[in-house]
Design brief:
128 residues, alpha+beta, 4 strands
């Protein structure tokens, strides 16, 4: 069976797309979409990705006005959290450590939920 090789893009509505793209680039290192075909898109490191449909009433997204959430892998959660807090961004670090890693939550300027994940266990070791 032929399989997809990864996520090729994440697309969502924004009240101010330019401002939000700059925020993601400045604070998380996610390059904005290229303005021409001569410029490469943002490249990410290979690693585990969760693709999960969730119940319509899931609290994972915050309020009902938010229909999507994104989880970014990070190599050093503590360093990323320190960097974001130094920029005045509120970040909540999950006090629990799970078999699959550590997590932190924040929101972008439009209130969209972002989860940061430092993988551990099987997700850190690689595919079985």
């Amino acid at each position: 069976m032929e399989r997809v090789t990864g996520v090729g893009g994440v697309f969502f509505r924004a009240a101010d797309p330019d401002r939000l793209s700059r925020w993601y680039a400045e604070h998380l290192g996610v390059d904005p979409a290229p303005e021409s075909y001569e410029v490469s898109s943002w490249w990410q490191q290979a690693g585990p990705t969760v693709f999960a449909a969730m119940p319509a009433d899931s609290c994972h997204f915050g309020g009902p006005e938010h229909a999507w959430a994104i989880n970014f892998r990070v190599a050093d959660l503590d360093a990323m959290v320190s960097q974001l807090r130094a920029a005045g961004i509120e970040v909540a670090v999950d006090a629990s450590e799970y078999p699959n890693g550590r997590f932190a939550q924040l929101h972008d300027p439009e209130g969209n939920p972002i989860q940061l994940w430092q993988p551990a266990g099987a997700d850190l070791r690689g595919p079985s």
